[in-house]
Amino acid sequence: MQEQQPQEVENIVIRFSGDSGDGMQLTGGQFSATSALMGNDISTFPDFPAEIRAPQGTVAGISGFQINFGATEINTPGDSPDILVAMNPAALKANLEDLKRGGVIIVNEDAFTSGNFKKAGLEDNPLDWKELGSYEVIKVPITSQTKEALSELDLDTKSKTRCKNFYALGMTYFMYHRELEPTIRWIEHKFKGKQELIEANITALKAGYNFADTIELTGHRYKVKPATIEKGTYRQINGNTATAWGFIWAAENAGINLFLGSYPITPASDVLHELSKHKNHGVMTFQAEDEIAAVCSSIGASFGGALGITTSSGPGIALKSEAINLAVMLELPLVVVDIQRGGPSTGLPTKTEQSDLNMAMYGRNGESPMVVLAAKSPSDCFDMAFEAARITLEHMTPVMLLTDGFIANGSEPWKIPDVRTEFRQIKTKLVGPEDYKDKEFFPYDRDEETLVRNWAIPGTPELMHRVGGLEKEDRTGNVSYDPANHELMVRTRQNKVDKIADHIPEQEVLGETEGDLLVVSWGGTYGATYQAVNQMRAKGASVSLMHMRYLSPMPKNVSDILGGFKKIVVAELNNGQLKGLLNSRFNCNAKGYNKVQGKPFMIRELTQMIDRELEEL
Amino acid sequence: MTEVKKLTKKDFSSDQEIKWCPGCGDYAILSAAQMAMAQIGKEPSQVAVISGIGCSSRFPYYMSTYGMHSIHGRAPAFATGLKLQNPDLSVWMITGDGDGLSIGGNHLAHIIRRNVNINIILFNNEIYGLTKGQYSPTSQKGLSTKSTPYGSVDRPFSPLKFALGAGSTFFARTMDTDPKHMIEVFKAADAHEGCSVIEVYQNCVIFNDKVHDQFTNRKTRDEHTVRVVPGQPMVYGANKDKGVKLEDFSLVAGEFNDESELVVHDPSKPSLVHMLSEMKDVVPMGILNQRDGDSVYDRDVHAQMKDVLSQKEKGKIEDLLYTGDVWEV
Questions:
Q1: E-assigned strands of A239-291?
Q2: How large is the ipTM?
Q3: Domains annotated on chain B, with CATH
Q4: What is the spatial distance between Cα A138 and Cα A221, in angstroms, rounded to a whole number?
Q5: Helix, strand or coil for residue A81?
Q6: Which strands form A591-594's sheet, in the order they lie side by side?
Q7: What Rg, from alpha-carbon coordinates, does chain B have?
Q8: Are the beta carbons of B85 and A229 separated by less than 8 Å?
Q9: Do A286 and B80 touch (CB under 8 A)?
Q10: Do B327 and A280 lie within an 8 Å CB cutoff?
Q11: Which of A220, A386, A513, B69 has the fewest CB atoms below 10 angstroms from its CB?
Q12: Ordered alpha helix ranges (H), A442-507
């Protein structure tokens, strides 16, 4: 039989799906890392249940990992997979409708037993379903073949069976022309000292690769060329790691300690894990007894001269409200990171949503202005964490940084920035007695232009003062119940935050700054809205994109941009929170395009929406 | 060398007008704390006082040190963050029975458990004063208040038992009517490395007047309190003619024949401290519980940081950015 040449395609979307214990996150992670190393642009979407090990074989226990890798610019994990690897019947049942018509399905035939059909809530064998006729189904007894390949090794059956994910990975590596070397290196590092496990996993990987070759999966052998991307040194990064590193860099840049007070919560805990590793960077982490203590300890550390930060998700941020408000009142640095997940209440802990914007803006008692920033992609979390730290340190007011589960866990290749030239020096407001040789010290004296107060920390000779949550007298900071003073202080705190607009970049627009339709988006939806608007523009549509990262205060040119379009649609993963904000502030009659399913936007959903909105004009 | 200035109470007093009710026990506690700090001899700039919410929590405004009047119940968390960031500071925390044992019970338990090296003064007046007279978690059962017009049916907390349950390494009790004893206890608390809790029997003259009267009134207190001293037999009474004996696994206060019958105080013995916590009509005063040599959270956190730094070089951000797989395009 004549060997087919690999077919070149621009991008491929692959989804690995199996039980929570099947190692699908690891498999997906390896496929991503290898693809990134081979020069593809990638975007990933880990999607897993809130339960650590939901009952085996059930749909509830399905854990998935989707990767879009391409020779062109990739901004999203892809709308629909071209290929699905289903390790059991539940995985097939849960994912079939997402798959592209005509796509490839690799199933682990060994797992298609009547017992597993029952667990998956299936009455019959899904492999007999008529609708599978529209797909190319490759049935492989992955479990038994893995065991067979490892038969010579001195390992128990359970450990051998566990290697089946590497067998599946090996098959996909052959199909998509991936190099084995990076994964072999990774296995050797991961199982260092456990020679038998190293051998088992590498053997399984190679066996899968060779099996795909043997059964002539050549017809499915695709090639995705390296992407033509900007020259530089690259690495893979996910949003939570980027967030952690952005803060480390900001503290190093500002020359102060970084203090994280945090409490475990999905999907924010990885930032705590990452920061707790880096004590040699002057990072102190404190796992507090609860969300409230977490933020309070950070404010205590800020009072003492650290960059105090706290990380959480919606339910935790709700608990922190009172303390965040105290930081507004005290005028101390504090960054609060809300890695948003589906709400309300406990909601959908492992799913993504953008529904905490209103809470960030308004979720406190009294007149409590908040700086709100939102990162647009995994790597942008680095830049925005730095920005949040810069603003809180230079403007002495708390900053809320919104990311979400999608970009927090998703990863992409990242051109490593030259931090020494691409970021400017953060100037803290720290003062000492030498600054007050010829004037008296008052804790709430302000810079005339920015209205920012100075930061005198306990331990500093001569600058003793008291701060507190009671309203304070202008300048002195003494407790004051004077009515006119209260109004002055309320306005001053608001003005101080408003003036930050003078110290942030202007709002950018993709496309013309006037036209028929303006799509507005914010935060983690950037990849999808960018792709959708770009695709429609390529077809000649009069549509532009305003993707926002600075939500409060907003860049000064936002009003002008909104005024340049016949129609404005705000696309967001909530019930219309930014839309409401823009309409109340600018009276701009924006429409909402909303999705609240715990899932990111698909590009085609947005292009269809743009089509419809333009048609209706 | 520059001459060391002797610090006085005045060096610790701010210029703010004190706004507690006339006759409130808080005045005496403030004054005693200021005198104790002057005697301890740390400059006011090296001292920070952190409080929660309640009458007692206005305390920092009256101090010339650094201070923070924070939010209800959370002072332990602010104090922990500050102490971790600045371990050389002398950090004092002010709380009350409502602030510390009700809304802030969780945080108080954890700061004691971690044994953070700070001093906590817990003003116990068995009532909510600032909200104008509701029963608190230390109010006695049956107390009639605005929120319990038919009498409280709620079982009270014992601050000592609470602290012991959290693994306290220092717990002392004193009273607002005895400045000398307060100063002594505050100084001992400061000298202890670890989390020192001082319960002060404090009188709320408006909403719960004379609640501790038999223990604090000069006329009756000698007959109702035992000033415990480590290594000394537990003797009390104006004429030192009464003492504390061990009977049937309980401490019994009353008359005795010979000092050899009496229990000798040892604050490092948990079983004895537990028995002290059960005393009712005659209560112990002074350092009831003290264990030295336990791990101290802030010290250990910094030791661990130092240890890591001795093994790894001081990090630069580039070290992180270029770890793992990187590739050139």
A1: 258-262, 283-287
A2: 0.97
A3: 9-217+296-303 (3.40.50.970), 227-283 (no CATH)
A4: 13
A5: coil
A6: A543-548, A515-522, A565-572, A591-594
A7: 22
A8: no
A9: yes
A10: no
A11: A513
A12: 483-498
Name the one residue in this structure whose structure tokens are 């009659």.
Answer: A589
CB of B231 less than 8 A from some CB of A: no
The encoded tokens of residue B247 equal 């009977």
For residue B51, what is the nearest residue in chain A, using CA coordinates? A468
In three-state secondary structure terms, B20 is coil
The number of distinct structural domains making up chain A is: 4
Nearest chain A residue to B302, by CA: A284
A203-245: pLDDT as tens digits: 999 999 999 998 877 666 678 888 888 899 999 999 999 999 9
> What is the residue whose two structure tokens read 């939901």?
A54
Which chain A residues are closer than 8 Å to B315 by Cβ? Answer: 248, 252, 278, 280-282
Report which secondary-structure segment, H or E, holds B222: helix B221-224
- B270 CB contacts (<8 Å, ≥6 apart)? B164, B289
Select from A271, A466, A467 the residue whose CB has the most chain B CBs within 10 Å, as the one to mutate to test that interface. Answer: A466
What does the alpha-carbon distance between residue A500 and residue A416 come to, in Å, rounded to a whole number?
28
Element (H, E) at A401: strand A399-404
Spans of chain A, pLDDT less than 50: 1-2
DSSP of B257-277, one letter per residue? Answer: S-GGGBPBP-TT-HHHHHHHH
**Does the CB of B329 have a partner CB in chain A at under 8 Å?**
yes
Q: B interface mutation test: which of A228, A240, A241, A297 has the most B CBs within 10 A?
A: A297
Query: If you measure CA to CA, which chain B residue comes closest to A432?
Result: B45
Residues of chain A with C-beta less than 8 angstroms from the C-beta of B105: none
Nearest to A468 among B45, B68, B305 (CB): B68
Residue A464 Cα, gap to closest chain B Cα (Å): 5
Q: What gap in Å lies between CA B116 and CA B80, rounded to an integer?
A: 7
> CA-nearest residue of chain A to B43?
A461
Range of the domain at A366: 236-422
Average pLDDT over residues B61-90: 98
What is d(CA A518, CA A510) in angstroms, rounded to the nearest whole number? 10
Q: What is the reported pLDDT for B3?
A: 61
- Domain termination site, one of A391, A422, A453: A422
Please indicate, yes or no, whether residues A346 and A481 belong to a single structural domain of this protein.
no
Q: How far is A144 from chain B (nearest CA, A)?
A: 33
Best of A296, A415, A420, A473 to mutate (most B CBs within 10 Å, chain B): A296
CATH number at residue A298: 3.40.50.970
Q: How many Å apart are CA A185 and CA A37, to the nearest integer?
A: 13
Contact B180, B125 (CB under 8 A): no
- Region of residue A216 (phi > 0: left; psi between -120 and 50: alpha; otherwise: beta): left
**The pLDDT value given to residue B86:** 98
Which CATH number is A218's domain given?
3.40.920.10
| CB-CB under 8 Å, A39 with B81 | no
pTM for the complete prediction?
0.93
Residue of A289, A381, A426 to mutate, testing the B interface (most B Cβ within 10 Å of its Cβ): A289
Q: Residue A583: give its domain's CATH number.
A: 3.40.50.920
